[in-house]
Amino acid sequence: MTAFQPRVFSGVQPTGNLHLGNYLGAVSRWVPLQDQMETIFCVVDLHAITASFPEQGELQSATREVTAAYMAAGIDPKKSIIFNQSQVRAHAELAWIFNCVARMGWLSRMTQFKEKAGKNRENASVGLFAYPNLMAADILAYRATHVPVGDDQKQHLELTRDIAQKFNNDFADRIKELGVGVPNPTPSPELPEELYFPITEPMITGPATRIMSLRDGTKKMSKSDPSDLSRINLTDDADSIAKKIRKAKTDPDALPSEIKGLEGRPEADNLVGIYAALAGHTKEEVLKDFGGEQFSAFKPALADLAVAKLAPLTKEMRRLTSDPAEIDRILKDGAEKAAAIADPILADVRKIIGFLDVA
Ligand code: TYM
Q: Disulfide-capable partner of 248 in 55, 137, 207, 214 (CB 3.0 to 4.6 Å)?
């Protein structure tokens, strides 16, 4: 190979409902990439057991639901590979190897682990601690070059780059000897001339990289917030969407006409960002239209837009989930295609490390 093949990898955990943050920050942004490069979208069910094991049957229905959401949002199984992580053995195998590449100190700095483990860190699973290594394995099992995600995944992607860098350096001679490397596209003193793993580019762009809670503009919209009013779920009907936006926390001032007027106004900033992402506009454009308006005028406009954009998606998700056999067929086909890419990469990695391959 003379260069890394441009390849996108991203994923969502099948834990609970998908919300507007997942849609605007990630899934909706994947859709146009399908026409630009090879795209692989995964439902990361191995990650979904790191906090606790879901009840019997829950993982299956949540996995099918996330798959349906991907497709309803416009991910086309004819253009992209769609599969669930546990079906491709390479993820767990490479994650183990990365457990031996990553350093305790690197993982100890992960803010998401600290948040998720909370005060009771001693009782968190080892899987939760090693979670970012599995994420690096997801990406690098395909030598993926681009990863579109929301802002909360930034630190995990930096760790993925660190793992790739350390592996490339530690095994530089072996990679060269075996002739499996690719010339480093961006030569630097920190890296050898030939790389096995690409130094992945995070794609964290647009007005919706961090959608905040509707109840508190300083907290991220999340599946785990106890208040359902804090988020818009992709399964919400029109009435609940409108109600949640009506009840969204705001301040008493009118909307500013310039971006800098949103400083120090997290709730206003969030709602303008949501409007912009749903409309496909910039925040500046939204403020051009709504600057000077009160929230009493802006909120109904936002609710109408959200319903218009999300109702067809919800309907399509419902249609797709009513045929689980078809979803399973798509996932099976995707898993076969994914394994066909990842298996030879894992075979190289085993050779690079030096395991005795007896087969
Ligand atoms: P997860 O399942 O928490 O979230 C899926 C995607 O949604 C984005 N996101 C948000 N974006 C904007 N505003 C929000 N409030 C918001 N909440 C979530 C996330 O950034 C993410 O892009 N570790 C990942 C899943 C994963 C992965 C990977 C992603 C596993 N392996 C490999 C990319 C590549 C996660 O838990 O995402």
A: 214
Active site residue 220: yes
Q: Judge whether 154 counts as a catalytic residue.
A: no
* Parts of the chain belonging to CATH 3.40.50.620: 7-207+323-353
Rounded distance between C-alpha atoms, residue 22 and residue 307, angstroms: 17
Q: How many CA atoms lie within 13 A of 16 on its CB side?
A: 14
For residue 357, is pLDDT > 90? no
Active site residue: 79, 166, 223, 249, which one?
A: 223
Q: Using alpha carbons, list the distances in angstroms from residue 236 to 197, 228, 240.
A: 41, 10, 6
Taking the model in full, what pTM does it have? 0.97
How far does the centroid of ligand 1 lie from the alpha carbon of residue 13, in Å? 7
Task: Supply 324's token pair.
Answer: 């689980």
The residue from 79, 116, 154, 243 that is catalytic is: 116
Q: How confident is the model over 169-225, as pLDDT tens digits?
A: 999 999 999 999 999 999 899 999 999 999 999 999 998 999 999 999 999 999 989
Domain with CATH 1.10.240.10 in the chain: 228-320
Tokens of 105: 């100190």
Distance 10 CA to ligand 1 centre (A): 8
| Å from CA of 162 to ligand 1 middle | 19
The CATH code for residues 228-320 is 1.10.240.10
Its CATH class, for the domain covering 7-207+323-353, is alpha beta
Q: Strand 7-12 to strand 38-43: parallel, antiparallel, or no bridges (unpaired)?
A: parallel
Please indicate whether residue 309 is annotated as part of the active site. no
